[in-house]
UniProtKB/TrEMBL annotation:
Phosphoprotein found in the keyword field: yes
Source domain of life: Bacteria
Start and end residues of each Response regulatory domain: 2-116
The protein, known as: ANTAR domain-containing protein
Entry annotated with the keyword RNA-binding: no
Residues where 4-aspartylphosphate is found: 52
Keywords: Phosphoprotein
Domain ANTAR: 122-183
Gene3D superfamilies given in the database record: 3.40.50.2300, Winged helix-like DNA-binding domain superfamily/Winged helix DNA-binding domain
């Protein structure tokens, strides 16, 4: 597992390193410079990013939230103090775990595990949502094609669906592909 530790303080970064020392098969990369951080993270391609900010200003916090929005990986962020607004912003930015006043070597491993599990759970939810939206869009396209066939051919809904299905089977295509063709042709002919 490749782990990037982002910390401008070498002493605080060593706390994180100490907490990860017992993990087998890990590669640690300690990044201490904010300049070019995103490019460096992309170059390293870590599996997990652990960010320690200590007591950051609002601007610094927002800069790191921007990084976390772009990096599609589990991210755990450690800060010494926070407020509700920063916590909400961290969630919106895709931070998997936001730890306030909890940088201790004995907690790092469980925070790492939690970050990975929450990231994976959220990724599954996003995938399920995208799949559901895709299926809904396909269903709406098929329904629209059925309405077009019902109006233009004077058939019932089951007959319109059967016609779409027949054409899909005879051309070895999906019903939604045929439905999209019907809708597109209808629009080209001036239909709405």
């Amino acid at each position: 597992m490749r782990i990037a530790i982002v910390d401008e303080s070498a002493s605080r970064a060593s706390i994180i390193e100490e907490g990860l020392a017992q993990l087998p098969d890990i590669e640690l990369f300690v990044l201490t410079e904010r300049r070019g951080l995103l490019a460096r993270i992309e170059e390293i391609a870590p599996d997990v990013v652990l960010i320690d900010l200590g007591n950051p200003s609002r601007d610094v916090l927002e800069e790191y939230f921007t990084v976390s929005r772009v990096v599609a990986r589990p991210i755990a962020m450690f800060v010494d103090e926070s407020d509700e607004e920063a916590i909400g912003a961290s969630i919106d930015a895709g931070v998997s775990v936001y730890v306030v006043d909890g940088l201790a070597s004995n907690r790092i491993r469980s925070v790492l595990d939690l970050a990975v599990r929450r990231f994976n759970a959220f990724a599954r939810l996003q995938s399920d949502l995208a799949e559901a939206k895709g299926k809904l869009a396909e269903r709406e396209t098929v329904d629209k094609a059925k309405r077009i066939l019902m109006q233009s051919k004077g058939v019932t809904e089951p007959e319109a669906y059967a016609e779409l299905r027949r054409k899909a089977m005879s051309s070895s295509r999906r019903i939604v592909d045929i439905a999209e063709a019907v809708v597109t042709a209808h629009e080209l002919m001036g239909g709405e």
